[in-house]
Each structure stands twice: as structure tokens, then as C-alpha cells.
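Record format v2
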Amino acid sequence: MPTNLQSAETEAVGQAPWTWPVFAAPGLIWLVLLFLVPFYAVLAVAMGGIDPIFLKPLPEWNPLQWDFTAFGEVLADLFGGQLGVIAMRTIVYVVVASLFSVLVGYPVAYFVARRVERHKALWLAGLLAPFWINYLMRMLAWVNLLSPDGLINKIIGFAGIPEQAWLEGRHLTVILGLVYGYLPFFILPLYAALDRIDRQVLEAARDLGASPTQAFLRVTAPLSRQGVLAGLVIIMLPMFGDYYTPNLLSGSPRTRMIGNQIDQFVNQTSSQGGQGAALTLILMAAVGLLMLYYLFNIARVTREARE
Amino acid sequence: MVFHPREGRNPRKPTRGLTRRDFILRSAALGISLPTLSAILAACGGDQDAAGEVLIGTPSSPVTQPLFDDNPVIASGTAPEAGPLRVYNWSDYINPDTIPVAEEALGVDIEVTTYFNEEEAIQKLISGEVSFDVWFPVAQSIPKVVAGKLIQPLNHDYLPNLVNVWPQLQNPFYDQGSLYSVPYVVYQTGIAWRTDHVDDADVMEVANPWDVFWNDKYRGITGLYDDFRETLYMVMLRNGVADPAVATEAEIDAAADGLVELIDLMDIRYTIDGVYSGMPEDRFGLHLAWSGDTVATPFYFPEDADPSVMRYLWPVNVGDSVKGSIANDTIAVLKGAQKPVLAHQFLNFMLDENNALENFGWVGYQPPQNGLDVDTLVADEWVPDYLSSAIVLPEDFDNPRAVVPTQLSAAQEALMLDAWSKAQSGG
């Protein structure tokens, strides 16, 4: 049912009620296809068989003939096998990297949104600066910086700290790599949320006797919660599937993530495409829960705002 | 499937042409990870109308690949087609300067399209997504691509330069009589090290050189290939397994245990670029190494560093019991080639000694040409003297301790992949 605002807009410009749905249809159809077709293709591979000559996955398009073997194998390995260890490691990496991102990114977003008065565009451009350089090149730069005779070891050497083997399968290195790679994606939506907070609300809080800390905790923090959640969703989803950050910054089995396992199933072997597809779908379901929480939260906030 | 030396020459397809931003946005939007795209491609394959038995030969039991009525040899004496000739090859696996020379020699334009790994290439070829004339399959794939009728039998009337090739590879065990393929390059899997980090004696003056990967003096600077077959083969050969292709489950498990041990003992890391890139950059001092990667290392050293610290050993050359693997790649004409005569002429061009040598100078992987020996390659500075041990000899293929990888059965591959997963996840 159209809202009053929508009706007013439509009437004001003399448009038929179907105008905007028609305009939106091609894009919506494209988006739906872009999700559904690949999703079904992955499902068909996960439920399919193996070509006897090429030992390659053969998708099974008919749901009546689906074979759940690959799913069974992956699930069994996830709950009681080596895959479970990798999955737990991935969850820990992503959660810790996300917490780091909040700790580092929130003050930056807050500063740019609330404290920078002039040249705000310049600051935003600075936040986007990492995007100007190819991700791979940035990570390779870190490989050099973290190498035994790299800049990082030289700097800590000045402080009397012994040289560290950063690239020899350190959990911390991979986590920091994830934070570095995805932090800007956290900051930007949070910045937008913080920038939208009406300053008069904060002034009202102060007028009513709140200290700056109380105003932050009782006004800014709750109002920026959606921005934090949006940022977390945006960075956590790709982090769960990341595989080249651990590849580049470690290469050790100690730091193997779910994405590496999917890469192995799909790209390194002939016959395990089905397992790769099954693991992809399981990962998708897991991160889908994260997305659902976010969507429910958005819906709740929107409902409360209307009330 | 295994990884292939050529995959090391490129960043491992982290973006597949997507920008970082595209990657993040698409992943977030779809809620799926990037590798899923590969699975999507795989899903587009469709059913194969493949017929024919997969004949997997071994050096002791060579096979002649079958001919099929619906996949005939082209007639002799046919005029070459008009260009362009479409070549499907690994990334960076042909000298860019060789292409214009070939274009001039054949009088046509040549279009080279590349792929990152053979799985990707085969998937696209069987799905009909791509159409090319010439392809560069690895030798161990020949049985299945013949049975699946991806490549066509060759007419040797168009290949007079085949006589330039080492006799063993004119009549290889996987394709007796070179009915479907001609050899392209050869390589061993051995040990590369830097003398400023590793004592020569720890590699060369020990009963089993493979043991150096378990020598904790070199903890933190040691790497293995992120390639289940190469690395598991190495451990099995170290353990004395006669033929890893038919190893028992216990032997494969023992190999996995050996790799798990390396995680803490050596802080082992798995890479594809660790030799040609990681060693010149001093990220590794010791690495499992393809001979071709090792030959290429001097070109990757920083200007202020000395590449003569590099050394290479094929362990077969030490003692009288240690085994090591050796392999070759091939060139073939695709069954669906639009320009089959031209494709044959291109194969013949690549078998010419001068053309093969020029190509070697850039690719780093050695053509099995009769006219090229160690003295020539070193004297003419194609290979530095300190890496002359990385030059493959024809007799290496005849060495009874040389193991030539063959296509694995599905069951054997499954066992190895389970072992690999165990090794990769720490047991």
C-alpha cells in the first residue's frame, strides 16, 4: 500500500501508479536472476555427480535426482573432522578482526563525521585511498613490510624488541591483514550513520544535563548502532569467504580458513567440486543468518521510528 | 588435477578480473564467497557425450591411444586455412616475442588466450564455452582428453620437426607414437635453496636429500608447493614408496603425517610462487622446486642482490636409491579446431630448435630438443652455471628412479585429497 508521501509524489508529477514499478522491473529481474541462477547452479553441482572421464563435477539439474553425498561428507567433516577445526578458526578470525575493526574504525568514523568541520571531502577521499591501489598490491606491500628485514622489524628493532617472524603462520598477522583489507568498508557506512545524527538531539541531551560521555553513550552510540551493524555485515560476509589474505600473509596450515578449503575443493582438484559447492552453500547459510539478524534489526528500527 | 608450474607465474586468480570493490560488493550482495564463481562456471558444463576408454599408460606399460571414427586425422597436403589461429595456453607460457615470429612464419595472425589452471581450461573446453585451435595440455591429462575427444589425432606429415625432440618423448608412454600430442617442455621436481641460508652439505651430502625439509635448522624459511600431488609425492618418495600413483592408503596417510609434523617442526608454508618469487625476495631459503621455476629465479632477484646464491638439486642425482619426479607438457590440436592445418603448422613451428630456444629464454621451462645440451645452454648463457643442475637431461626420463606422474584413478585421487586436507588443516 503506498504511503501518503508516495501518493503525493505520484500525483504531483502526474504519473501513473505503475510507472516506477515498470522502471524498476528490469533491474529487479536482473538482480533476482543474478542471485537465483548462480545459486541453483551451485546447488546442482553440490547435488550432482562426477564425470567418469574428466573426473569433473556434473551438475544435476533435476531435484528428484539429487545426491546428498557431498553434503553429507562436508557436514560430517564440519562436525567432527578437520573441516570443523578450519571452520572454528575462521569464525574466531572473523570475530576478532571485526572487533578490531570496530575499535579502530569507530573513532575514525566519529572523528570525520562529528569533529571535522572543514575539508570533510578530503578526509573521505583519504578513507577511500586504499581503494585506489589494487588489493593484491597492498597485500604484497605488507609482505615486504613484514618480511624479516622489512620496515616493521626495523622499527620494533629500534625499540629493542627482537625481530618477529610475522609471515611464518601467525594468527595475528592474518587477522590484522583482514582488518587492514576490510576496514574502510566498515568505516564508510558508520560514517554515514554518524553524520546523519541530528546535532540538535545531542544539544538537547547536553541541555538536559548529560555529560559528553553520557550524551555519547545514551544518544550517539544507540543512534549509530545501525551503522555499526551495517559495517559489520559488509565486512564479515567477505571475510568468511576470504582465502588470499591467509595465502599471501601466511601460507601456513595453521592459518587456513574456510575460503582456502573451498578454493582447494573447486580449483585444485578435479573431483571435489561437489564438496566445494556444498561447503559454499553451508557457508552461505551461516552468513545468511548474520544477514537475517541485520535485516530484522533494520525492520524493528524502522517500525519503531514509524510508531 | 594438480597445480602446474605455470600457475606460479601469476597471482593465484584472487580477483578473476574483478576489482577489489567489485569483489566486496558482490560477495556482500550475494552472500557467497568468490570461489563460488568457479563453481558456477563448473555448473555450466553440462553433460558430456564422451566415449572411449581412458587408457592410462606408465613408463613400464606404455599405451597407444585409440583412434575414433568420429575424430579423424586431417588429410595430408591440404593448404593451410586463413588466419587467425587461436591458441589456448597457460598464462605466461609462451614468449610474447615468439608470437610475431610465428605470425610471420605462418603468414597469419595468432590470438593467444590464457587460462590459470588446467581444470578451468578443460571445463571451458568441454562446455563449449570456448573454441580454439591449439592447446597445451599436461602429459598426464592426455588419456582423459583423448577419451573425451577434446583433441584430435595428429598428421605427422605436417610435423617434420618432431624429429628434433628427444627420442623418449617422440614416443612417450602416455601416447605411443605421439598420435595426439607433441612434447612442449620438460621439468623435474627437486630442491632449491639459497647458499646464504642453507648449507650445501645438508642437501647434497646426506643419504636422502628430501630429509632437508625436516631439518629444523631451516625452520621458518622452508616452503612446499601448494599442490597436493607434488608435495604428497615428495613425501612418499622420501618414505621410499615405489610409485605414489598406486600407493596404499597407509602410505598416503604416512605422507600426510609427515606433512603435519612439518607444521610445528618447520613452520612450513605452502606457496605456488615461493621459488621464483619468494626465494629472490628472501622470503624462503629452501623450497620444493620445479626445475623451470628455479631456472627463472635470477630474473626475479632485486638489482642489489646476488642471484648466484641459488642452487638446485634433483635428489635422484644423489646416491643410488632416492627417487624424484619428472614430467613434461605437450601441445595438441583441439578436436573442434577451425584451422587444423594451420594448427599443425604452429606445432611444427614450436618444435623448431631455434624457436624452442627463444621461447625457453623467456618461459624458463626447457624444450626437449636434441640440439640443446648442458654445455650449450650454459655456454650460451641460457642457464647460469650455478643452476646448471636444473637442466633436464634426456636420460633423466630413463632413470629407473625417476617417477613420471600419471593420471590418478578417482579412488587414488580421493585418498590423496583426504590426506592433503589433513596436512593442510594440521591433522
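Residues 82-115 of chain A form the longest helix (34 residues).
The first strand of chain A starts at residue 49 and ends at 50.
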